UniProtKB/TrEMBL annotation:
One of its GO terms (molecular function) is hydrolase activity. It comes from the Bacteria. It comes from Bradyrhizobium frederickii. This is Alpha/beta hydrolase. Residues 244-360 form the PHB de-polymerase C-terminal domain. InterPro entries: AB_hydrolase_fold, PHA/PHB_synthase, PHB_depo_C. Keywords: Hydrolase. The lineage of its organism: Bacteria, Pseudomonadati, Pseudomonadota, Alphaproteobacteria, Hyphomicrobiales.
């Protein structure tokens, strides 16, 4: 049963303060950028010098990503964590001990885990589209060995859903965490995206030389995350020595931004957020129109009750769009904001063990009863 969702915080004019995961919807920011004509040099996107929490190796180098292998064993059902491709790096899925999706899945008995480590867009990548990312995701899954269990985080969630609808035989189970799919369900994010003039987004791409600059987005945003925001995201006190180290690590991670290909960015804004093509069943993925009802695999949905980026009502409404029988849809909601779903200590103590258990569960009994 899908959890019942209460009233979401904020009034009709409330807008999310968190810029961390939604550069594609930052309409206010985009409008500011249109009039921000002071030329300044753009910092180069260097490799991160933040260490990964979980030991891993690069299993595959692709144009859009490095496929990271975090496996403890070579055998067993593979899980691929599809990180958000937005403003920040994939370390969001492996931030720190007790704050790591990869680590929590391992603690829950999942031995084979892979992670999409998306690359920052270079000038040569400016024409890459959503199809480019779906294509490389397909190559990665073929390399791992299908079928996989696909765990999609935020934007990585709708990409995972598209993939599961396009290649249903290659996805055994699907987990969607804080994932926006049906954008007809009102949220401050959707409202901002719909109301901004189209030229706003075109101008952002033009200013980035064909890409959207993550660094510029971060510099222009009017409200950087403060200590209270970070406490809410990590869901722990930061006053001790370990907390101080986490605070410094968060600040470092937050400053390491990714650029997005302009073509990809505009497709996300227009096809997904403005036209709602995924929920409407009209999204063409790698040459074929796909519909969420094409997904028949078991699905787990996780939402944050305090999430104003992807409200819980929106995240859980995906259940009604799928072709998955209701008996195979699990759902949970946590008292968490958006980032807390991926980084929060409380969420990792409560929700992620349940997800790991669900991935390991034998559903053959449910299959037999529903046949």
């Amino acid at each position: 049963m899908v959890d019942k969702i209460g009233k979401q915080p904020g009034g009709p004019d409330h807008a999310p303060d968190e810029p961390l995961l939604w550069p594609f919807t930052a309409a206010r920011l985009a409008m500011d950028a249109c009039f921000w004509w002071v030329e300044r040099g753009r910092a180069e996107q260097n490799e991160s010098n933040l260490a990964w929490t979980t030991p891993n190796r690069v299993a595959l180098e692709l144009a859009t990503m490095r496929l990271r292998d975090c496996s403890q064993r070579r055998s067993g059902q593979p899980v691929l964590v599809c990180a958000p491709y937005a403003l920040h790096r994939a370390l969001i899925a492996d931030f720190a001990p007790g704050h790591s999706v990869v680590g929590s899945l391992q603690d829950g008995g999942i031995d084979r885990i892979y992670l999409t480590d998306w690359r920052s867009a270079t000038p040569s990548m400016r024409y890459l589209s959503i199809d480019s990312y779906l294509g490389d995701l397909n190559v990665a899954i073929d390399e791992i060995g299908a079928p996989v269990d696909l765990v999609g985080l935020c934007q990585g969630g709708w990409l995972s859903l598209l993939y599961a609808a396009r290649f249903p035989a290659k996805v055994r189970r699907l987990v969607l965490v804080g994932t926006p799919v049906d954008l007809s369900i009102d949220s401050p994010l959707c409202r901002l995206t719909r109301n901004a003039p189209e030229m706003v987004y075109d101008q952002l791409v033009a200013r980035g030389g064909g890409n959207v600059s993550g660094g510029e987005m971060l510099r222009l945003w009017s409200k950087a995350p403060n200590r209270d925001d970070i406490v809410a995201a990590l869901q722990r006190d930061l006053s001790d020595e370990e907390g101080a180290a986490l605070l410094a690590r968060f600040d470092h991670w937050n400053a390491e931004t990714l650029d997005l290909p302009g073509a990809y960015y505009l497709e996300v804004v227009n096809r997904i957020f403005r036209e709602n093509q995924i929920a409407g069943g009209s999204f063409k993925a790698l040459g074929r129109t796909v519909d969420p009802k094409d997904v028949k695999a078991p699905v787990f949905l996780l939402a944050g009750l305090d999430d104003d980026v992807v409200p819980a009502a929106q995240a859980l409404a995906t259940a009604g769009l799928l072709g998955t029988p209701p008996a195979f849809i699990a759902a949970a909601s946590e008292p968490s904001n958006h980032l807390g779903l991926f980084m929060g200590a409380r969420t990792h103590a409560h929700a992620w063990p349940r997800i790991a258990e669900w991935l390991r569960d034998d559903l053959s009994g449910v299959l037999a009863r529903s046949a």
